[in-house]
Amino acid sequence: MTVQLGFIKSDPTTVPAQMTCEICPGLELNICQAASQAEWAVSDAALIPVQQSDHFALARRIVCREEDLHDSVPVICGGWAASIATLSDSSRQILSFLLPGDIVPTTLLSEPRERYLVEAITDVRYRIFKRSELKAAVFKQMDLLEKFLKAWAEEKSRSDQLIVDLGRRTADERIARLILNLAERLAKRGMAGGEPVELDFPLRQRHVADATGLTPVHVSKVLSEFRRSGLIRISERSLTILDLKGFRRIANMR
Amino acid sequence: MTVQLGFIKSDPTTVPAQMTCEICPGLELNICQAASQAEWAVSDAALIPVQQSDHFALARRIVCREEDLHDSVPVICGGWAASIATLSDSSRQILSFLLPGDIVPTTLLSEPRERYLVEAITDVRYRIFKRSELKAAVFKQMDLLEKFLKAWAEEKSRSDQLIVDLGRRTADERIARLILNLAERLAKRGMAGGEPVELDFPLRQRHVADATGLTPVHVSKVLSEFRRSGLIRISERSLTILDLKGFRRIANMR
DNA sequence: CGCTTCATTGATCAATCTCAACTCGCGTGG
DNA sequence: CCACGCGAGTTGAGATTGATCAATGAAGCG
After folding, report:
1. Claim: this prediction has a pTM higher than 0.70
2. Within an 8 Å CB–CB cutoff, is residue B19 touching chain A?
3. Cα(B160)–Cα(A248) distance, rounded to whole angstroms?
4. Mapping DSSP to helix (H, G, I), strand (E, B) and coil, where does residue B52 land?
């Protein structure tokens, strides 16, 4: 079995919890750290114990289902995952990709019209917080709350973005934008960059299709066309944007 | 000029602020009331003054732009509005319809990739809160914060829903679902119901098109087909769902 | 009245899907 | 060690959905 842990190569079971958390990409919202600090901050008064437990999911396996999210809040520590809505005919729509440091869709505790679930794309290491405890901690710590609000705003902004893409953009545009967005998010985590830009790209074309509302077949054609015109190169689960300017033009046109 | 104020027929200028707020449809999140109560609750201590000012926008006019939302939080009191993203080729995507009691997209204070704005569909009466004050009030009042969180969760849930619709559903399904969703939201406010279900429907076909990622022309064809097969009836800015069961079938299939 | 916006309808076009065949790499079990 | 099956990707042909273009009519408004 190939282990694709994104940027973290170490065996998660050998690393103590606090350690892994500290390697966690420095994100605006680094919950693990934030929560530990919260615990730390009040540990003298022994007020808010924020428990967290480590977990692991193999690629292509389900990390959690909607019902699991009622009392637990998972956070991705390593690897890629996706939150997915599945329709009754088994077609799927990816709502968002979850990268290391991302908190699993925060608000998934509403009435479920469709089936939501979180699926591991690569092998994934994650950590589960108790919702009630996390909430309590957040409410007591103003700055933690602020962080959450900011993360929320960003999450919402991305989903608005996706709505526009799905509603008003062509296949080429959607795919190019998806790649650029991922590159940007990865860059923030120090997991992409360079000249030309290069990034881990563990997605199957099926994932791209599910995220862009297209068909795997069509995704293949579009990506081939991108490759043929020298915009990108894909190999070994890694993607290079050869012509960033041209690629941006395709993504933003209109 | 016809005034279509949804369910509120009174001239807003003649009604004192507190009055209008009390007529406001009883919603999970009734900010006007909640905020006034917050003010009330601490008025003895004179701690959190939550100011609010009344405003009015004619149909088809802009209620506010993205940059306005940095320090102010508008709440719809009467009428319908829409929050819209516009692309550079002037095509538009409606992110959500705003009905009385709705708070204008809460998190629109992030980096703007597209141009967002809020546009009045009917004449709209709304109220503006100072963001900083509202925030302070919310942070001090646990239950207010809870209300906000719930409202956000719902907002997020709806936008996830929309993502699935735009990504994976046909024109027929999208349009039927839009109508059913609106009916449901209106029913919660006591603004729709009956047997057969009837609701105010001030939307132009252009709005439906902008919300579903379709063309006005195609919307017209689909709606005509719906009418022809006896599913719905539209007249006088009012819509009746004649065959709720059949309509639901069209909306949910797959 | 004459303008403008909105809706309807038909004809044609284009983007994307569907179906199908084929390849490649990989893991498994005989 | 090899045959096999499976999942992923590629490619082409044809079908479908919805877009585009264009003409027309109806309604609201100054």
Report:
1. yes
2. no
3. 26
4. strand
